Amino acid sequence: MKDLVAKINAEFETFKTESESLIEKGVKAAGPRARKSTLELEKLLKEFRKVSVEESKK
C-alpha cells in the first residue's frame, strides 16, 4: 500500500508541474501531459480504493 501511495504522490507531482507549465508559462505541450497524468491518477486512485477496502475487511 505504501508503494501505491508513493506512485500516487509522484503522479500528482507530475500533474502539478505540467499544469503549472501550461497555466503560468503557456507551454501548450504541457496540456496533453497534464491530461495524461489525470488519467493515470484516476487508475491509481481506483486501485487505492480497492486495496483500502480490502484492508479494512481484515
UniProtKB/TrEMBL annotation:
What is this protein called in UniProt?
Histone H1
What GO annotations for molecular function exist for this entry?
DNA binding; structural constituent of chromatin
| Known function | Might have a role analogous to that of eukaryotic histone proteins.
Q: Which domain of life is it from?
A: Bacteria
Q: Which family does it belong to?
A: Belongs to the histone H1/H5 family. HCT subfamily.
Any Pfam family hit: Hc1
Q: Which organism is it from?
A: Flavobacterium aquariorum
